[in-house]
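Quick one:
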Amino acid sequence: MTDTISLSLDAVHALALRVLTHHGLSAAHAQAIARIIVAGERDECHSHGVFRLLMCTRSLRDGKVSCHAEPRVTDRSAAVVAVDAQYGFSQLAFEIGSQHLVEKARRNGIAALAINNCFHFSALWPEVESLAEQGLAALALTPSHAWVAPAGGSRPVFGTNPMAFSWPRPGGQPYVFDFATSAVARGEIELYRRSGRAIPPGWGIDAAGAATTDPATVLQHGAMLTFGGYKGSALSTMIELLAGPLIGDLTSIESKALDGDAGGTPCHGELILAFDPAFFSQGDAQADQARAEQLFQSITDQGARLPSQRRFEARARSLARGVQIPRALHEDVLALLR
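Output:
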């Protein structure tokens, strides 16, 4: 018996739907989340794929997430739209709000979508990538739970606080990056814990602020670290402000307090900005796009890779052959149906 099992992407989608609806989630929310689960597994972002079903169902069992929330759209201005997720998961709120965001960005050149009162567990690249597919550049920011210590500190203040950016490209995949301002996503440390491996140095500290490579110590008693020292710490602070107080939502400390150590999905806000390159162009959008392509070529011509290149290569493999899921994780997910 191997340590993994093979699943088609359709099978991953069906499994996610079964688990989510079994735990009471409405069909609309379950479909939106299942699409994100499939995208993560398809692109070999394993910490944001099937593994995330464990966190989603924990939040549903705790009763904190609204299973039937209907996102409420508010048209704030010509360039700003807000969606109150009504304490449901964020994916459906984004799908609804992004339609208005795209319209406003095309009309005004730039637009903002503020999502409030949402439970957000996924990567941000599916959101900005979907906007790039419609010809827009996009930037997304969100806090999470206070798991990360600031540079020079020893107590958690920040969330993993990811940010993602996308740029549309003619005839191919967009330029996309998505990274946590912590040294690594929290899900990666959890995967190390599940497999009994030590984490690399620089990912976390213990309760006394000393460096540790024990994932359980970091997750249960210590804190994660930002990437790049004070630079990651400054970026994380920016994300806290722009996706928290600016849009009238929670900081990572407040989100963690709301959770009450239940270990559920963070509840907070999200800010997405969209830009129309054709609108900003000074009359020759095609030439401007060509300059962008020359920039990308100057990177790849010297052997460097663009962000998400490996993810797109993984996508091609998965579309052709399906995906491999750790057997132990698959059994844990199936247990959610019992």
